[in-house]
Amino acid sequence: MSVKEVLKEIEKDQAFYEESGGGVTFSGGEPLMQPDFLNALLKECKERAIHTTMDTCGHARYEIIRRIRDNVDLFLYDIKTLDSRKHRKYAGVSNQQILRNLKKLAENGSQIVISFPVIPGINDDEKNVTRTAEFVGSLPNIQQVNLLPYHRAGIEKYKSLGKPYKLDKIQPPSNKKIESIKEKIEAFGIKVAVGGG
User: Fold this and answer.
1) Measured between alpha carbons, how far is 186 from 25 in angstroms, rounded to an integer?
2) In whole angstroms, what is the distance from residue 115 CA to residue 99 CA?
3) Whole-model pTM above 0.85?
């Protein structure tokens, strides 16, 4: 689709955005994979006073993020684990660039909500939760942390695509575990929501 075609779809709900205070969220996949197209859409939304949110893992050259950041009202930014070895094992890349980009965005004044997927046995241990809270707590402009409990909804999708689902043995975290993580992060003076919102 062209920028014009996507914008036409976005504008269909403009009255709703004005009434609700909502706007457009760019997600994916990863929206930073198409930076020129994304930036063109963001600029068009800003010209129409449509609130823009971008859901990202932050794995891109900072130059790309710097180009689009002023047209993004709110970043939903994933932090999976602060352990670089684990991040490489489960996400396929180091987290160093991701964490540097987050720090730069926060220091630049961008408004940010952290998305923290809670995956049992991978990133829900006390050490990682504490390190994550310490890091997030050291940054300015963090609105809150959204805890996103792992779920198994993707298993069938992977099967239908003929792809192996590597986390099929993992069960969703208990409510007690999520509440414990929430309390640990809140102890650092950070606002926390479960599931977002």
Assistant:
1) 26
2) 13
3) yes
Q: Which domains does the chain have, with CATH numbers?
A: 3-194 (3.20.20.70)
SS3 category, 52: strand
Helix (H) or strand (E) holding 16: helix 14-20
Conformational region of residue 58, where left means phi above 0, alpha means psi within -120 to 50, and beta covers everything else: left
Distance of alpha carbon 107 from alpha carbon 109, whole angstroms: 5
Q: What angle do CA 145, 146, 148 make, to 5 degrees?
A: 140
Can you read off the two tokens belonging to residue 153? 């909804």
Rounded mean pLDDT of 173-193?
Answer: 97
Give all strands (DSSP E) within the chain, no chain letters.
Answer: 23-26, 51-56, 74-78, 112-118, 142-149, 192-194
Q: Check if the beta carbon of residue 48 is closer than 8 Å to that of residue 41.
A: no
Q: Which residue intervals of 84-163 are DSSP H helices?
A: 84-91, 96-108, 126-137, 154-160
Mind listing the pLDDT tens digit for each residue in 29-56? 899 999 999 999 999 999 999 999 999 9
The Cα 4–Cα 191 span in angstroms is 38
